Prior knowledge:
Structural class: alpha+beta
Strand content: 25-35%
Amino acid sequence: MEASKRIVIVGGGIVGVSTAYFLSLRGLSSIVIDKSGIAASASGKAGGFLARGWGGGATAELHERGFQLHEQLAKDLELKSFRYLPTVEVGHKTVGGSKKSPDNCQASESDSLLDSSTTKSRMMDKSTAQVTPFELVTKMFDVAKSKGSTFRVGKVGGLEKASDGSYKGVRLDDGEVIEADVIVLTMGAWGVEIEDWVDKVRVPMVGIASSSMIVNPQTKFKDAPACFCGEDENDCHLELYPRPDNTIYVCGFGGSPHLQKSEILGLNPEEVKPNTERIPKALDSFQRITNINIKTDAEDGSENLKIQCCLRPCTNDSLPMIGKLPTSNSVSSNLFIAHGHNCWGILWGPITGKAIEQLLVDGKTDINLNHFNPLRFS
């Protein structure tokens, strides 16, 4: 592809930015458009847990090669937040037989993140890793920007078609048309709108409003692992990801609303609010299993808690939609789509961006995308 081609990427999350990053390494600049900013939704608020061997069947390659690519990106971008850490399964100590614990588990160490009086744990996987998504996404875009890519804040309201059936640009809500030779749609949960723009394409997808919190324990715990906790009496199934900056990312509150298309389209990323009914239960569950005292609304300003929420895009079959979309006639399509990565968006995002870059530049990819055909719902 000629360097003069005008490439427009709609969506500033990890998939769109990864696409811009890998294109920039091939000498191609792009225009990234997002209604809010870079990493404004799930890509800036996710946990960043990476598991090489947790895929199977259709997703096995995304897990394996996605993990390898993260390892390379951590070196190339000199990421401070990437690190290897083990993952443990956490159970609750039985009280009157009412709580279940994983088999063959041991009491948590007294100097660990977990409270040994209330929890037992066992090793799940010694070869997992973690990255802070916001650092990864912003550093990738810094590279793309240094090589000529640009960012625009704007709400895309549709696509502009040429007389031959190809797409010649994106139309912003204010009426401005940004011309394009190639368009890549990486809109996350907001990709539900694509079925209104492109003939014969269905996007059966919900946005799962996932609440999370970042805790600053103001103390450092020895060799803290990632923790996957069993469901408790609050109906929480907490996941804890200790980060190198000594904060702890916590999700798995339970009760996450599944937003339908009409609800998604009425929201901006910053308007996605946490589930206020689940927050007290999650806080209670967290403090029961850890050695951390959470302060909220402290008069001296010593609060150590941040609550947030984002939308996870999940299709009807829980698989992403990745590939080229058709035109209305025999003209070669210049429209690509990549979204619907659900809870594995951070792990799969860069390898998806790599696949789109290969399709765009080489006309083919060495990543098997057969299971992720964007026309499979049509």
